Amino acid sequence: MGQTLTILVLLGSSLVALLLVLFARREASAERHAARSEAAMLREEASARLAEVKRREEHSLQREKDASSDQRNAQQYARSLEERTSVVVRDERRLARERAHLEDERAAALAAVARTTVEEARAELTATLLSRAEADAAVELRRLERRTQATAEERAREILVEAMQRQAAASSADHSTTWVELPSEEMKGRIIGREGRNIRAFEALTGVTVIVEEGVNAVQLSSFDPERREIAEVMLAALVEDGRIQPQRVEAAYARAVAGAVQRHRGAGLDALSAAGVSGVTTEVVDALGRLRLRTSYGQNVLAHLVETAQIAADIAAAIGADVEVARRGALLHDIGKGFTHEQKGTHAALGARFAAEHGEDGAVVNAIAAHHDEVRPESLEAVIVQVADAISASRPGARKDDLDAYVNRMANLERMVLEHHGVTRVLAMAAGREVRVVVEPHEIDDQGTQALARTIAEHISQDFTFPGEIKVTVIRELRADAIAG
Fold this sequence. Notes:
Structural class: mainly alpha
CATH class of the domain at 261-400: Mainly Alpha
CATH superfamily of the domain at 261-400: Hypothetical protein af1432
Strand order of the largest sheet: 1-3-2
Number of helices: 15
């Protein structure tokens, strides 16, 4: 039994060894097969690469042959072209010599016929040609000038018409009266007061005639002086709103209206700057502009004229490519000197230019102000635009009325003449100049002197002042005594 097991073990070991040998041989055979396959693939790849290299080499050789052929062809063409060029040059030289010879022969023939030398004939021909060229140029220049002038005039008309159309505004206004609306008819009685004391106090303080008409729910304030009319309008509006009207309240309302004038000036100046599109001015300039709201020039409100002129100037400057801001600013300020003519000597253009320079305005703006009436030479296109815009605003139909300024000057002269008398402190021309109220200093003129002064003033007016109809002179002497109980 033991021997059998031993034999079986030996047989099993032999079989295992035999199997291992067979497996090793199988693996070796597989590896050899794989190696042969890989070698075959490498040989094929090498053959393919070798074939590609040969193909590229053959292509390169062919390109070299083609390049050599092209180079030979180019050289042949260049030689051919050079030969042709030389032939052309020789022909041109020959033709030039022949042409020069023919010209010399012709010039000699012309000189022989004309009995002059070649140089003289050439000089004469040159002079003739120059003369003809100058004449033709002069004709063409005149034609171009006429066409340019016609075009420029047409374009200028278009620009001005467009600027005027944009700024079309009403031109009629009531220059000597102001209407104040009333809440009821009963308010008229309060304004008049008992035995007319309220209306007398109102007219004595303001120098404005109060006209109360039946059937109209308003009262009319009449005066040639727009500042007086405005103060009266503010007073009356305040009194009507309060409802309690008596002489003491009339005096208080007058004081408040006079004190508020500065604020009204400033508000009007700011409104004008906003309407004209101008900013960056000093407070003094704003106030100076605002004071012009009560000034007129031949019936045209000066501040409204300035705003309109600024808008027109800006439109013209934008249309022709000028500096819009300089034109707008110069136009708005061009008449600002009219607010100083009664205080300082000089024309309003010179005073306005000096005022603008003192308050930091640019030199171009100052020149536009000074030159708008040709008192100085305009130094810029914008200064000329200001002149044009000023003329457009002032000359449009209905903008100005000579008779109103004449009337205002007449009333002012009447007041100044009466104010020259001794003891007179205030003069008010009322009722379109048909009445003059004279306030005197009570410590210098007594009650009997008022009668004599009234007669003296009336005689003075009759002798030195021309007027239709009659002028009533009223001398007012009022003595007040105040005391405080404490």
